[in-house]
Amino acid sequence: MKKLVSLIIGLLLITGCTPSGQPGIEGTSSESIHRSALPQMIKAEQAKNRKASLSLNTDTQKLKSNQTFWVNVELTLPENGTVDSVRSWLSFDASKLEVVGFHPDDSKNDFELSAPQEHDFDNEQGVVRIGKSLLRPQHTSPVLVERIQLKVKPVAALSSSTIDFFDFQEHAEAHTTATRVLGNTIYPILEKPVSPGLLLTLEP
Q: Please, what are the averages of pLDDT over each run of 10 residues along the chain (204 residues)?
């Protein structure tokens, strides 16, 4: 909020306008930034400071051998926040878990579009690749990114296993990120996910 206030004050000084909209002491010039640019610049500053969060949710975290279960990948937006695209690559222990597939009804997901080669999984490497985008910015929260069905492999004794977000970085090219587009600029808006994303207890 302090940064936003500083930005507004700075713009008012540049344009020579007071908060009431009247010319300031220095007046205006042809080189001044027009006041119509102020809302867009404020939105840009807000977008850089807002953070969304990714989470993994399931009905139960205590599972048995050969049991199948669903995991929801969900994005929670800040108040009045929006999102345009999400990448959410997941890693899992391929010796204990395997992916069965994605939910067949895409209408249950809030994202309309899947990125090429980012709606698949590899049970040998233990990775799920998810890349989603919207035709128009999403405002509701939480946002359902994807539903994934997994299966527990046979285990001989009580053990644990995790599903985690892969390669989070604070830029748009990371394998785990969420972005908002303002003008011609892409802003990463995702905070670092909690690790592990999901901790499971597995029983024989």
A: 41 39 43 48 53 94 97 90 91 97 76 86 97 81 92 96 93 88 88 94 96
In this structure, are strands 62-64 and 159-165 parallel, antiparallel, or unpaired? unpaired
Alpha helices in the chain (DSSP H): 2-15, 38-49
201 HSE (CA, 13 A, CB side) = 5
What predicted TM-score, i.e. pTM, was given to this entire model?
A: 0.73
**Tokens, residue 39:** 């809302």
What are the tokens at 76? 């929670």
Both tokens assigned to 2: 């302090």
Longest C-alpha distance within the chain, in Å?
Answer: 79
Return the closest-CA partner of residue 124 out of 90, 94, 158, 162.
94
Please report which helix (H) or strand (E) contains residue 131, including its range. strand 127-138
Which residue is listed with tokens 């994934």?
Answer: 148
In angstroms, the CA 58 to CA 27 distance is 60
Spatial distance between the Cα atoms of 193 and 68, rounded to a whole number of angstroms: 25
How many other β-carbons are positioned within 10 Å of the β-carbon of residue 36? 7
114 vs 133: CA distance, rounded Å: 6
pLDDT score for 48: 53
Query: Given this model, what pLDDT does residue 50 score?
Result: 62
Phi, psi angles (nearest 5°) of residue 167? 60, 60
